[in-house]
Amino acid sequence: MKKLFIKNNKSNVYLVISILSLILFIFIMLNLLNNWFLTSVDDNFNELMKNSFFSNDPVLNKIDLTLDYLFEVIPIILASFLIFLYLQYRRKFKDSLFFIIVMLINAFFIWGLKIIIQRPRPVGTAFEALASGYGFPSGHTTNVIVFLGLLAYFSWKYLKNNRRNVKILVTTFCLILIILVSFSRLYLGIHWLTDVLGGLFLGLFILFLGIFTNEKFFN
Question: Domain containing 153: what range?
Fold first, then answer.
């Protein structure tokens, strides 16, 4: 009974995070569609990044270009397929299906929202040739949150209780990567700040709604 109570409480937390993330995403989207105050924040932040002391740093260029490649659509698809196969091999059939469904929903949301909103990316930046298509929401940011968030979730679910330090290490590594990838979109100048924030909250919405559904109904 106690375990069931704890499980229900955790599931409710996941749902609350998902709902709050959706509300914040909608708020940002409405700002863009109605040209509210966040668009001026975008302009100011973009100028700040261009004039920052670390702008066009050779080391940061290499790191951020590598992150740009690693979390492109094709590498994410390949990595997702490998994780799906691994979960199948471990006979975690429900979770393998859950993983691939969440990743497909994630891809659908990114694709659909970009087409609906059709927000142009920043222009006049050194790396603008890297990006194509519309900017909102940032696909890299959404992808990295959903993909690495699910990896962290599986680490806590499947690693033994005496491997707590390993779970914390995996989660910390995923969080650092999420921060670095999100920052890279701004550093390279191929997204506005609200593109990245929109991708962040969209990713959190998809991730935690997926985990809530999986924990509540399939585990």
Answer: 2-217
Between the two ends of the chain, the Cα-to-Cα distance in Å is 15
Whether the per-residue pLDDT at 2 is higher than 50: the answer is no
Q: In whole angstroms, give the CA distance from residue 142 to residue 138.
A: 6
Write the CB contacts of 22 (distance below 8 Å, at least 6 apart in sequence): 201, 205
CB-based burial, 132-171: b 16+ in 10 Å, e otherwise: eebbbbbbbbbbbbbbbbbbbbbbeeeeeeeeeeebeebb
Q: Domain count of the chain?
A: 1
What is the C-alpha to C-alpha distance for residues 64 and 117, in angstroms, rounded to an integer? 26
Q: How does pLDDT run across 170-212, given as a tens digit for each residue?
A: 999 999 999 999 999 988 888 999 999 999 999 999 999 999 9
